[in-house]
Design a protein that fits this description.
Blueprint (H helix, E strand, L loop, with lengths): L1 E5 L4 H11 L6 E5 L9 H11 L3 E4 L6 H6 L1 H22 L2 E7 L22 H16 L3 E6 L2 E2 L6 H12 L1 E5 L3 E2 L2 E2 H12 L5 E4 L6 E2 H12 L4 E5 L19 H5 L8 H13 L1
Parallel strand pairs: 1-2, 1-3, 3-4, 4-5, 5-10, 6-9, 7-12
Antiparallel strand pairs: 8-11
Helix pairs in contact: 1-7, 2-4, 4-5, 6-8, 8-10
């Protein structure tokens, strides 16, 4: 199977590349970072897709700096919205399956229970709005699509909450973390495995794919310190005390209903996945 991965140098992209390489000759993978393929350039996207003719495109490219999106609205729109549109149109031309990675930020966070794939969206940030419009373009322009909604993602490559907490914990011995935002920590390894399972099927549609269970950022930080054995005091604060430029969803825990109904949900409890991740990076 010929697979093209965009955003291949990021957290999820690099995890997918490593996982695919472990399968030997089963997959023929084309690795493309932002330097190799600017997904916002429709002409270039068409040229690459029509020339390489992949059977599957996995779009991991996104402008994910949530607060920066509030300032750089045009850039966020180009990458998150037009980039998704360009890939969808090109994939449909060659009959390729498109896996498009979405986010929990497409919800307003005002719910009181875990969100399912059919729940009404209502993003409050530029990041969430541009990602949602990108999702809509994928649905409209590519018949063979998987939209994968993820949340609180961490992996071995790049910056993420786990690395930040470990660094601050070691440097300062104390951290302040919000305890009134709830979500699902998600390890890229588990996410990548489910994406590879999906592309072997024709079970197209929208999927939530997050770690099992939910917690606050405060709970998440406490477990990071515990599992990494860092002597650090974690203080709980409110979102009002810890103001950010972009509004974050207060409750955006996702329920993996579509996975359970199709290929099966084997996403691990978030604590188990986090413990393994920390052990792996120690090695």
């Amino acid at each position: 199977m010929r697979i093209l991965i965009t955003g291949a140098n990021g957290q999820l992209g690099s995890e997918l590349v490593a996982l695919i390489n472990g399968f030997g000759d089963k997959y023929d993978v084309l690795v493309m970072g932002s330097r190799e393929l600017d997904i916002a350039n429709s002409k270039l996207v068409n040229e690459v897709i029509l020339s390489e003719r992949p059977e599957v495109v996995i779009n991991c490219a996104a402008y994910t700096k949530v607060d920066d999106c509030e300032v750089n609205k045009d850039l966020a729109f180009r990458v998150n919205t037009l980039g998704a549109r360009n890939l969808a149109i090109a994939c449909d031309k060659v009959g390729a399956k498109l896996v498009h990675v979405s986010t929990d930020y497409i919800f307003d966070g005002e719910c009181e229970e875990d969100l399912r794939e059919y729940d009404i969206t209502g993003p409050t940030s530029v990041y969430g709005k541009t990602k949602l419009m990108g999702d809509d373009y994928v649905r409209n322009f590519c018949r063979s699509h998987f939209i994968i909604r993820v949340a609180w993602v961490y992996g071995k490559v790049g910056k993420n909450f786990v690395y930040t907490m470990m660094r601050l914990g070691k440097e300062n011995g104390v951290v302040n973390v919000v305890d009134d935002q709830i979500g699902n920590p998600t390890y890229t390894k588990d996410l990548a495995l489910h994406i590879l399972k999906l592309i072997e099927t024709e079970e197209y549609g929208i999927y939530n794919c997050t770690g099992d269970g939910r917690c606050s950022w405060y709970d998440f930080a406490c477990k990071i310190m515990e599992y990494s054995k860092i002597d650090c005091k974690v203080n709980a604060v409110t979102s009002e005390e810890f103001k950010t430029l972009a509004k974050r969803p207060k409750y955006s825990a996702l329920d993996n209903m579509m996975l359970r109904a199709t290929i099966g949900d084997e996403m691990r409890p978030w604590e188990e996945a986090l413990r393994e991740f920390i052990e792996e990076i120690k090695e």
